[in-house]
Amino acid sequence: RWPLPGARDSQLLGRHFAAPIRRGKYVLMPTDDGQVLLIHLGMSGSMRIHETKPDLARHDHIMLTVDAPDGGHRYIVLNDPRRFGWVDLFAEDDMAKHKLLRDMGPEPLGNAFSAAHIRAVFANRKSPVKNALLDQRLIAGIGNIYACEALFKAGISPRRRAGSITAGRAEKLANAIVTVLRAAIAEGGTSLRDHVQPGGEIGYFVQKLTVYGRAGLPCVTCGTPIRTIVQSGRSSFYCPVCQR
DNA sequence: CGGCATCCCTGGGAGC
DNA sequence: TGCTCCCAGGGATGCC
To answer: pLDDT tens-digit profile of A18-40?
Structure first.
């Protein structure tokens, strides 16, 4: 998405990667010499790991050739048709102050996430709760699909002001977020188009979506047609009866 | 600071 | 079949 002024492939040549970690929607790959390779897949990006050297295809931007423990090689390819994703390479010591990471909220599947956290960061906020869920500074890692699905599960209208979320609603919302994310991960993600797992498998959570992409179709709970509205430029899908 | 519109980019599907 | 238009999983940026 933007150039890497300081980064050269030679900075990674011969290095070993430690176990990669995920933070929000970022993949972080630390090296044995104190660097971190950061990757964000944007809307259309994917990373695939090939057993044999692949021919580079359209929109393949980066290929990492790595030695594998079995003595062979693996080829990690970053593909991103829309180029909304980005890559950075920086010193591990700078991670805490990294512009893209420093302000990120807690992991919804981590210990710091709770109904109390939701109440604290939503308090006095006038924006719709849907917008607040997409704000990575409040909670990390929730995207448009899972925001819609979690709000449906919690019975909360996406239009409700974030600041009006009571303790009871916060409890339902926290549980819904965790449940939806765990279920989606278990299904390998939501493959609307571009998403694939590293082995190339698609994700099947698309078959379990209750509101996202279902405008006009009956609510799975009450049969009322699912409604769609635009909030800060993103589509929200919800049941006007079940979600208040 | 909060909130909103705009922009980045390609490609698939709908409609004609 | 081919054209145009609209829309899409994200988020930085700039404006009020």
So the answer is: 999 999 999 999 999 999 999 99
Q: Which of residues 28-47 of A touch strand B (CB under 7 A)?
A: 44
pTM, entire model: 0.96
pLDDT digits (tens, 9 = 90+) for A27-83: 999 999 999 999 999 999 999 999 999 999 999 999 999 999 899 999 999 999 999
Nearest one of A134, A135, A84, A100 to A26, comparing CA atoms: A100
Q: Kindly report which amino acid residue has its CA closest to the C1' atom of nucleotide C12.
A: A100
Output the distance from A50 CA to B9 C1' rounded to whole Å.
26
- Residue at minimum CA to C1' distance from nucleotide B7: A84
